[in-house]
Each structure stands twice: as structure tokens, then as C-alpha cells.
Amino acid sequence: MDSLANVTDEIVNCFKCPRLVAWREEVARQKRAAFRDWDYWGRPVPGFGDPRARLLIVGLAPAAHGGNRTGRIFTGDRSGDWLFGALHRAGFANQPISVSRNDGLALHRAYIAACVRCAPPANRPTPEERDRCLPYLAREIRLLSDLRVIICLGSFALDGIAQIYGLKPRPRFGHGFEIGLPDGRVVLCSFHPSQQNTFTGKLTQPMFDAIFSRARQLIG
Questions:
Q1: How many CA atoms lie within 13 A of 24 on its CB side?
Q2: What is the CATH number of domain 4-219?
């Protein structure tokens, strides 16, 4: 019988994409000067959260010096600061920040994953790399039996969900867009909380908080 633990074990031990394997390991060896004392994770990053999650947040891929360093998606980078702050304000997390796998963060009725589990060069995985990785996300979705809402952070995440669900034509992406899925679940689209979006004001804190407030409403 499949389980989230099985998926996690398979993700952590995955070597399917040579380009991503080489990059994640190179980054872990060279490190960033600010993190030279860290023992980088340097492996694929599994999803994490509450097995009874009603909310799933899907990102693109781990950051080279974020999840690839800490071993937990969105942990230790600026995007994570935005995400965990929003989750905390909406009551899905017990604290507003996460810096390591052992910092006490706990998610309540929420689970976080990504379409691609290895940090990609220039933060751009290829379609082939995404396609090899998506079965992990599909299994997590299947195993999260209480799941009601999926927040896609960016169009790449929406593309992944559309592929898993066989949605044709591909749904149009826009911040705040809602998409009904064949199994009765609902997708909420949000701009990714990358610095490119948050520094320019394309995504503001009120805009981001509104997404999680709407998720709360849909979950009930």
C-alpha cells in the first residue's frame, strides 16, 4: 500500500534527471558564502505537512540556497518568508517563519510540495524534467484524501496540476483565478512569492493573504 512516507523515501533517493542531479550537488559543494558553515541537503526535496491536509500548496522547485540547502521546500529563502507568513496569518501554520527542518514549524491541515523536487539551474526545469517528477505530486494528491483546495504558485505549478488531471485545454493562469477540478477540488491561482514579484509590487501581502482567506472559505 502506498503512503506519503513511501513517496518521501522515493523522492529523496531519486536520480532520474542527470542535469538536475549535477546542479544540486554542485551547489551543495560550492555553497554560498553566507551559508558556508551549512551542511547542504543537496538532494531532491520532498513535500511536507499535515497528512490530513485540506489545503495543498504547489510551487515550482526548491531554491538552490533555500530548499536545496535546508532539505525542506520554501525553507530558508525569501519566498518562504512570504509563504509561511501568509500560512500563519491564515491559521495553517504555528509560526510565521521557517529557517531549517528542525525549527519547530508545524502545518495544520496544509501540505506543501512542488512540481520539480530538485533545484534547477536558473530556476528553470525543462518540460522533460517536470514530466519525470510529476508522478510524485500525483501520488501525494491521491494520498491526501481530505484535500479540498490546491493553491498553485505560478503558471508552472498550474501547468503541472493541469497535466496530472488531464485538463484540456490548459486553464488560463491569473492571480485569483479559480478552477474546478473533476474530483470536486478547487484550484486557486496565485503569483509566486518570488522576489521578482514581491520586490516589484506585482504581488503584495494583501493580495497574497486574500488567496489564503479564500482557501479558508472554500475549505469551510
A1: 31
A2: 3.40.470.10
Q: Is 129 left (phi over 0), alpha (psi -120 to 50) or beta?
A: alpha
Q: How far apart, in whole angstroms, are the C-alpha atoms of residue 19 and residue 150?
A: 29
Q: What is the pLDDT of residues 69-91, one digit of tens each?
A: 999 999 999 999 999 999 999 99
What are 140-159's pLDDT values in tens digits? 999 999 999 999 999 999 99
- The secondary structure element, H or E, covering residue 201 is none
Which stretches of 13-126 are DSSP H helices? 18-30, 67-70, 78-89
Helices 205-219 and 78-89, axial angle in degrees (round to 10): 50
Q: How many Cβ atoms sit within 10 Å of the Cβ of residue 210? A: 16
| Residue 206: other Cβ atoms inside 10 A | 8
Measure the CA angle with vertex 60, ends 57 and 63; round to 5°: 105
Do 132 and 74 meet the contact criterion of CB atoms below 8 Å apart? no
The C-alpha cell of 219 is what? Answer: 475549505
